[in-house]
Write a structure and sequence with these properties.
seven-stranded mixed sheet; six-stranded mixed sheet; 23 strands; 39% helix; 22% strand
Length: 499
């Protein structure tokens, strides 16, 4: 337990670095402030601002711990992961405290922070469940040779986590890296540091020193020193395309392999036979506006068969109008603020451009506290009806509570619209015809296609997750998400000698 009485849960806290089993200040004692995006004047806490020297210490600690951790069997590492999963939720008050802190520093509504807390433990258990499969080598009998194909952990893995879904995304990297036999240095995002750091401390407390190390601070200050460190043998980054390309450039200096899970501009295709009842529209809403739309796999372009277009406009607009926008700590709130002023500006600029181009823009939702709304980083759920396809709201990732809705006439046209993007992360097909759904899904250039749903609540964590083109390189989650942290190793001998 964090030992903070409930009466003090909303007081500012300070988190530190975690290196080689010790909680420590940054080498310069510097910290940076974290504020509440619903109330930007409210200080949530301070986090340690790491230096290049701190990065060196963290990587060195992970490198030192690697041989002993890698020497454990998969079953032994699975036991650690299962105990961590239990530990993460063993103290109900601690879970509530970290969830509330997460809500205050991020802005997303409280029930979504609780969802992330639960999902993190589930992903540790899932990675542990692959122990037996991972332990099985591939056997290739001769002639001409007997060969065993096995895998080895890479070494120190740098895990770089974004601000939008930091705990859920941490669960797509950390247990997989550990299960594969790697030690890690984790860098949380500056805008979501406090609750993730406390959560990482709970995880690390059950592991040998140096297996998990945590550095916090400015990416501009320490990012390159982490991604170019000669002892870092693998980088797993989630974030923007721009930063992802920079990470890849830095990694190339040491030929360090990378997994990049970048942005998305996910298309949904609603066919004329789609079952659009109340539950379907709620799934559509959540797939779009969960976490104020700040999700890489959110629905970002909605294409609707012309015969159902007016119906979708009417029903989805009505649903958006009913949503309450405000402080995520309040039980009645359906949508909190955008996380930061920079991202809010991106969204409002897209809205302004669409309006200036003559598109019909509908800002929806209920705002019970106008003063709060005006002072925070808020944007109501906003729909843009049939905008020009050259506008930014269609061509670019909004990463906020903003959705363009456009009609189509034929399946071929719909698939062409969906594929007309530099991104290729996720997509969805809405139809009652299973054969038609799979046929269309196979034509969409995306790493994941949902059927009659979209987004995090429709995600199967057993399946590999990642995208095409600007959406990234490699895959997280599932069995594939573990073996990406390993190198293949072939062992051969003359036929009938080895096997």
């Amino acid at each position: 337990m964090n030992n903070i009485p409930e009466s003090d849960w909303d007081k500012p806290i300070e988190t530190q670095l975690y290196i080689d089993g010790d909680i420590r200040l940054a080498s310069t004692n510097e910290v940076y402030a974290v504020h509440n995006p619903a109330r930007p004047e409210e200080l949530v806490g301070h986090a340690a601002s790491a230096t290049i020297d701190d990065v060196d210490l963290a990587v060195a600690a992970a490198h030192k711990a690697f041989p002993d951790w890698a020497a454990l069997s998969y079953a032994e590492r699975a036991d650690y992961l299962n105990r961590i999963a239990d530990h993460l939720v063993s103290d109900e008050d601690d879970v509530k405290y970290r969830s509330r802190l997460f809500c205050r520093e991020h802005g997303k509504i409280l029930k979504e922070t609780l969802l992330e807390m639960e999902r993190l433990g589930d992903r540790f258990r899932l990675s542990a469940s692959y122990a037996e499969r991972l332990a099985a080598d591939e056997i290739i009998p001769g002639p001409p040779f007997d060969t065993i194909v096995t895998r080895q952990p890479r070494g120190v893995a740098a895990l770089i986590v974004p601000w939008n879904w930091p705990l859920s995304i941490l669960g797509a990297k950390l247990p997989q890296a550990l299960m594969a036999g790697n030690t890690v240095v984790v860098k949380p995002a500056e805008n979501s540091t406090l609750a993730p750091t406390l959560t990482l401390l709970k995880i690390a407390s059950l592991l040998p020193p140096g297996v998990v190390n945590v550095i916090t601070g400015s990416s501009e200050k320490i990012g390159d020193s982490l991604t170019t460190h000669p002892l870092v043998r693998f980088i797993n980054f989630t974030g923007s395309v721009r930063v992802g390309k920079h990470v890849m450039s830095m990694a190339s200096k040491n030929l360090t392999p990378v997994t990049l899970e970048l942005g998305g501009n996910d298309a949904a295709l609603v066919l004329e036979d789609a079952e659009l009842d109340e539950a379907a529209f709620m799934r559509m809403y959540k797939g779009t506006f969960m976490s104020s739309g700040q999700i890489c796999m959110a629905l970002k372009r909605l294409y609707v068969h012309r015969s159902r277009y007016d119906e979708v406009i009417e029903q989805l607009t009505a649903l958006c109008e009913s949503m309450v926008v405000g402080d995520g700590l309040l039980g009645a709130t359906d949508m909190g603020p955008v996380n930061n002023s920079r991202q809010l500006q991106v969204v409002t600029d897209m809205i302004a451009e669409a309006r200036a181009a003559g598109a019909e823009v509908k800002e929806c939702g209920q705002v019970p506290d106008q003063a709060l709304y005006a002072g925070g980083y808020f944007q109501k759920p906003t729909l843009v009806y049939n905008p020009d396809k050259r506008l930014r709201v269609v061509c670019e990732e909004q990463f906020g509570p903003l959705l363009p809705i456009m009609p189509f006439d034929t399946e071929g046209e719909a698939v062409a619209y969906a594929n007309d993007s530099n991104f290729g992360l996720c997509s969805s097909v809405w139809t009652q015809d299973r054969e038609r759904a799979v046929k269309l899904a196979r034509q969409i250039e995306a790493g994941y296609t949902y059927i009659n749903a979209h987004g995090p609540t429709a995600q199967d964590s057993r399946a590999p997750f990642g995208g095409f083109r600007d959406s990234g390189i490699g895959r997280n989650l599932g069995y594939d998400g573990i073996i990406q942290f390993q190198e293949q190793h072939s062992i051969s001998a003359p036929a009938h000698w080895l096997l």
